[in-house]
User: Fold these one by one.
Assistant:
Number 1:
Amino acid sequence: MNISVKDLQELRTRVERNLQEVILPFWLNNSIDHEHGGFWGRVNGRGRPDPQADKGLILNTRILWTFARLYRTYRQEAFARLAERAFDYLLERFWDHTFGGFYWLLSAQGQPKVELKKMYGQAFAIYALAEYAKISQNRLALQTAIDLFELMQKNHDTVQGGFWENATRDWRLAPDMRLSEKDRDCEKSMNTHLHIMEAFSNLYRVWQETGLRAQLVELVDLFHRHIFNRQTGHLHLFFDRGWQAQGAAVSYGHDIETSWLLLETSHLLDDRQLSAKTLELSLKLAETTLCQGLHENYAIYGACTDQGLVIRHLEWWTQAEAVVGFLNAFLLTRDYRFLKAAVKGWEFIERFVSDGRYGEWFYELTVDGRANAQLDKISEWKGPYH
């Protein structure tokens, strides 16, 4: 496959066109809850909100990060206004003014409904607040991110490393460690640590504190020592408190997502030896995903179960991460197999995942491109982040 600089420029143009014409209009026109404040917790495939839907921390923080990042790129005031709205609602409604940290779930009216302090959610709050601090004169954004980083130390395992998955409202270990109903009840997980690392990296870009740097080094090291499975080329997903892997399931989307996020953090730490070591791991993840995780049409599968059964339905976020991860692998290696996977993956997205009629992307579809139009375009887990 002969790919030129012109082809890469064309890919960028097509991606940006989809962002501007398909994704952003949906969020600008359909996401704002003018009745109760903030944003709707659920919006269906045609842009109709459910006024009674609960409001999740993950959705709100991802909206904040996305529109802060968009404003930094395009300098459009509409993006700044949505970021400010998300920031205000996050601090006014999600923040626990008694014990600190952010609630996991609110009612449609903005009252606390699930008071757990899930580390995954706290991480996305730090990620979003640090991004907002880059575009805002509001010092509260950065200070809240720093305060939350310090609060999270209550859930840091100072013996084995890493973080416990969940805490109660008052920051004691929660009896149920699951992130969601589909996850294992384990003390530690790949997914949470991936996004803690991502969040701490973004905070480090605006706050170069030695303790924060030390935790980033620890997090990268955990991926090398415990989370990456050198025998299979995949990531372990769940662990006990001593980092013994639980189960044999595989997540192709997280494999390819980690391939670029982990390397990004290693570069941020400005450690040549660590970056070289991480580059090797990153490319192994990309290679394994390329060889095992792709359908013949270049869509990426969702996961593989403990029993080795490939889950053949597709989700929007894995397709997006595959394009980013494979393009990153190509830029690192100039191996045109990766570039072909990125280009063909984007073609699949344009043809089947992107909804040119009602806007945004479908949540889920089959490998032959049949979308499930019944699933929401905006929900607790369906946001503008991926």
Note: The longest strand covers residues 112-114.
Number 2:
Amino acid sequence: MKSKTTFTPSPIHIYILESQLEIYARHLLFLQLLFTSVNQIGLQEKCEHYLELFANLHINTHTEQYLKEAATQLIQYITNINGEFQFASNITIDTTLLKYKEKDFLEGIFQFWRVSPTKQPFPAELAWDGRVRQYL
């Protein structure tokens, strides 16, 4: 007779060692997108958001709306007083090793993501155009 064994998932520890907080914020955004339930965002939509956010300077309005909502959630998570937050029922992110200065900088990055592209102080189109013209 076969014995039934139960599988108990062990916790997965992911450590992000990054000196640039912009990249750290981007990793948090991608982790949030990755662990968002398929009931909230479909698999096709998650893939489209990932590809647009990973590689594109200009994103469509649907992805822009997702980015604004995700940035708002990440601001709430980072400014949480106990330093831990959950993306899913079994995924806990621990930010207790971050300094308050780093948390404030991350909050500024997330607030920058929430600003409409037409109102951003960084002229992305001009920078892209100038870079491309150098190669012509």
Note: The first helix runs from residue 21 to 34.
